[in-house]
Design a protein that fits this description.
Keywords: Membrane, Signal, Transmembrane, Transmembrane helix. InterPro entries: BatD. This protein is α+β, with helices and mostly antiparallel strands. It folds into four domains: 102 residues, Sandwich (Immunoglobulin-like), CATH 2.60.40.740; 134 residues; 118 residues, Immunoglobulin-like, CATH 2.60.40.740; 112 residues, Four Helix Bundle (Hemerythrin (Met), subunit A). 26% of the residues lie in helices and 38% in strands.
């Protein structure tokens, strides 16, 4: 019995020692779901010391702190406990679902890897203020506000959102970067140019502030009910005062960074009333005038005139259709040409829209163009209004008469049609052939040229064939030509968008991805940075070229949130073309 007891104790001790000797290397995050204005802490923890620690690529985050290293070594009941931790503090660059890839380390001659972690970054959230936080002064001294003109508009009624950045006079802003742009789901939206705006003085919550208008947006709700206006978020670098002073008594400043958000806004959109709604109502909301005009009222048959249907005023001019015209069948009408002359300001859309019809009468006579009605919802009186055009009479002075007019002109006394036996005499039943060949073709210049042409073509064909064989044998030259052709093929759409920042970088990124999929034979879900690097390395592509390609992809991601001029776009385009060409030449 004692022997069995001793064996049991020995097994317990051995299993304990084996467990204690087991290597652990894992990644732990402070949270897996955070707002774009929050910070993420990630710890890489191991229970044995190791070498050559390689962190993952934090491409979707900005490292704002770290790596910080901590080591703890303790003995409890004769058992050694060891822990080493590498810590990083990360700020997300934007919203989305991101994967933090594997970190690696060498322990006792073996390589250990962490498990990839998926992080969800949402819109900005409200963060509780901590008076002991070094960034507390920045939190209390800078504010981003979204001013919504109306929170309970009608469907298709214009509202404005003005984003203002308030800064306390005792801090200084160095620069800012837009990390999250609002997405106006269920709205028609248009941004108003705010370039050249100057800093103004004002008050915020009863205190003196300086403020700058960053963005003005006009919105037309396209759906009724509660709609959400997502926040604008900025990452701001600034300097805040401290409690320290220099030798001259001036307050010392320290650098800080702050992510500010305008916060979510909710509006309640009212449906347009059903009472009194006209049957021909097409969704026009605002204050309008209506006109139907003809370029001429007297003309000849087969001449053309322009019939213009136009609406002018203030409202959702781009969001409804003009009424159609109904004309007599004897008037030939072409598809209308739609024209918009609309300016958008904080007051909404203002201007005019029109449909221009080209009308061509076929017969002589007078033709009425019936009156046309246009209905809209007037926001001032909150009632529907109808505008009706006057009838227009077209007088076609000269031209053939149509069937009805001919009958009337003869007074109904129709004469019988007498057929002549020679009515088809103009059709010839016999032909007289004439010989057009007045000279002998044999032994002419044309004859000898056509005879000798095949013999002359043989040496030309041999020369062309030899040149083609020489070109086919030029492997390096063919690679260069093929690479340039691929670069032009995949980058053609991006080149067309030069000068339009967002469209250019979307097209450039798509071109790079399509090129990789075609070159490396991979799918879209495999387009990770590590996967691309490994595949290009396997194909013997130089590390510098791989690095350039990765930097271009990163530029495409960052360019949507930073101001870019056309010179930089041109440089990125040329760099992308050169890199694709190099990859195609080097890949084996």
């Amino acid at each position: 019995m004692k022997f069995i007891k001793h064996i049991s104790i020995l097994l317990i001790i051995l299993s304990t020692s084996m467990l204690s000797a087991q290597v652990k290397f894992e990644a732990k995050v402070s949270k897996q779901r955070l707002g774009v204005n929050e910070r993420l802490r990630i710890d890489f923890e191991m229970n044995q010391d190791g070498d050559n620690f390689n962190p993952p690529d934090f491409s979707n985050f900005t490292v704002v702190g770290g790596p910080n290293q901590s080591v703890s070594n303790s003995w409890i009941n004769g058992v050694r406990s060891y822990k080493k931790v590498y810590s990083y503090f990360l700020a997300p660059k934007g919203r989305g679902n991101f994967t933090i890839s594997q970190a690696t380390i060498h322990i006792a001659g073996e390589t250990y890897k962490t498990v990839p972690i998926t992080i969800e970054v949402t819109a900005a959230i409200d963060i509780p203020k901590d008076p002991n936080d070094p960034n507390y002064i920045a939190s209390e001294s800078i504010h981003l506000v979204a001013e919504v003109s109306k929170t309970n508009p009608y469907l298709n009624e214009a509202i404005t959102v003005v984003y203002k950045l308030y800064v306390s006079p005792n801090i200084a802003v160095d620069n800012w970067n837009e990390i999250d742009s609002p997405r106006y789901n269920d709205f028609w939206s248009q941004n108003i140019d705010t370039q050249g705006q100057k800093v103004q003085n004002g008050t915020f919550k009863g205190e003196e502030y300086r403020f700058l208008i960053l963005r003005k947006t006009v919105l037309y709700p396209q759906k009724t009910g509660k709609l959400n206006i997502e926040p604008l978020s900025l990452d701001i670098a600034l300097r805040v005062p401290t409690n320290r002073r220099d030798i001259f008594g001036s307050i010392l400043m320290t650098r800080a960074s702050k992510v500010v958000s305008a916060g979510n806004s909710t509006i309640t959109v009212k449906p347009l009333p059903e009472e009194g709604k006209p049957l021909d109502f097409t969704g026009a909301v605002g204050n309008f005038s209506f006109d139907v005009a003809a370029s001429k009222k007297e003309l000849k048959a087969s001449e053309s005139l322009e019939l213009k249907v136009s609406v002018k005023g203030n409202g959702n001019l781009k969001l409804f259709k003009l009424p159609k015209v109904s004309l007599p069948s004897s008037l030939e009408v072409y598809e209308p040409e739609h024209t918009e002359n609309v300016n958008t300001s904080l007051a909404g859309m203002q201007g005019s829209i029109s449909d221009s019809y080209t009308v061509v009468p076929q017969y002589k006579g007078k033709y009425p163009i019936p009156s046309i009605s246009f209905s809209y919802f007037d926001l001032k009186t909150e009632t529907y209004k109808r505008l009706t055009s006057e009838e227009i009479i077209l007088d076609v002075l000269d031209g053939p008469l149509n069937g009805s007019n001919t009958a009337n002109a003869t007074g109904g006394n129709k004469q019988p049609v007498v057929l002549s036996k020679d009515q088809f005499a103009y059709i010839k039943t016999k032909s007289d052939f004439v010989n057009t060949n007045t000279s002998n073709f044999f032994k002419t210049t044309t004859f000898w040229s056509l005879l000798l042409l095949p013999f002359l073509a043989i040496p030309i064909a041999i020369v062309v064939r030899n040149k083609k064989a020489t070109r086919d044998a030029d492997v390096y030259g063919n690679k260069i030509r093929k690479a340039d052709k691929l670069a032009r093929k995949y980058l053609s759409s991006a080149k067309k968008s030069l000068g339009q920042k967002e469209a250019f970088y979307i097209a450039l990124e798509k071109a790079l991805h399509n090129y990789l999929k075609a070159k490396l034979h991979i799918e879209t879900y495999e387009l990770s940075k590590d996967r691309i690097t490994n595949l290009l390395s396997e194909k013997k592509v130089e590390a510098s070229v791989i690095k350039d390609f990765a930097s271009i992809l990163e530029s495409c991601e960052l360019a949507r949130y930073t101001p870019i001029d056309i010179v930089t776009m041109q440089e990125d385009y040329e760099k992308a073309a050169a890199t694709i060409s190099l990859i195609d030449k080097q890949a084996r």
